[in-house]
Write a structure and sequence with these properties.
2 domains, 8-stranded mixed β-sheet, binds nicotinamide-adenine-dinucleotide
Amino acid sequence: MKFNKITIAGGGVLGAQIAFQSAFHGYEVMVYDISEEAIENTKTFFKRIGEAFITDLNASEAQVNEAINRISTSISLPEAVEDADFVIEAIPENPTIKTEFYQQLGKLAPAKTIFATNTSTLLPSQFADATGRPEQFLALHFANEIWKRNTAEIMGHDRTDKKVFNQVVDFAKSIGMVALPLNKEQPKYIVNTLLVSLLNAGLELWGKEVADIHTIDKTWTLSTGAPFGPFAMMDVIGINTVYQVNQIKANETKDPIDIKIVDKLKEMVEANELGTATGKGFYSYPNPAYKDKDFLK
Ligand code: NAD
């Protein structure tokens, strides 16, 4: 069965993108957030996303306006979900906030409504009981800038109904995503399982002083045909995030190499070398060395 009414809970960075993408593909969309201020913020996101659709996808202004007109907003959860076929949750990555949200949602939404979480780092099984309808709950994970990076990882937990899973696969395709079904729960899905392994391996080579960052990135780029290496990628992700993730790891492992890596990252953070966001990280921008025509020679 096709969904007609979609509700997005949380109109932040990702929620606004999912709402816009769904409306652009013809769905009636409701965005729920906790305050009028947050909704104003969502509307600002819609303007920017609309501009990106025009620049990146050659969408017309009329198409963008039609998409925006298909989106309604509400700060009342009962109103936002009263007739929803599908609720996509994109609220903060905080287990307590998400659990409380699902406990309320499970009571308010009609019995037919299917729920999906866009969580990046948590597992759907963690919230399955809170929803009150575990068989109608799963993860649907988008990437930032979904109109360009159009992956949708679909991951159930061990009680997700197969029919529900397939319906969500069909929905993802219907909004222009490439549906990537996972057969079982996997922390960090496919994308971040691969990415984190690569980034950690790069950091370890650097921390052990096996090679300098240019050599490591050059090796990866030349030997795999990837457009850039792990250190260039960390500049895009943001050194702050890389630092925080590795600090947690080093606190757990107490491994001297992990601690050395964190110390080096901390120095960068303190020097405001946060990557592309501040113009300097492992490389200097706007003309990073890895874009130099001689870099791979
Ligand atoms: P964000 O902070 O930009 O947005 C969160 C929104 O949720 C805000 O508008 C906030 O007002 C609202 N909110 C807070 N509490 C709420 C509640 N109880 N009910 C309803 N709304 C509430 O966060 P984001 O970056 O959009 O991330 C949202 C989710 O998407 C997280 O689970 C995150 O892991 C996931 N995600 C993020 C990215 C990314 O690149 N930002 C990528 C993939 C997945």
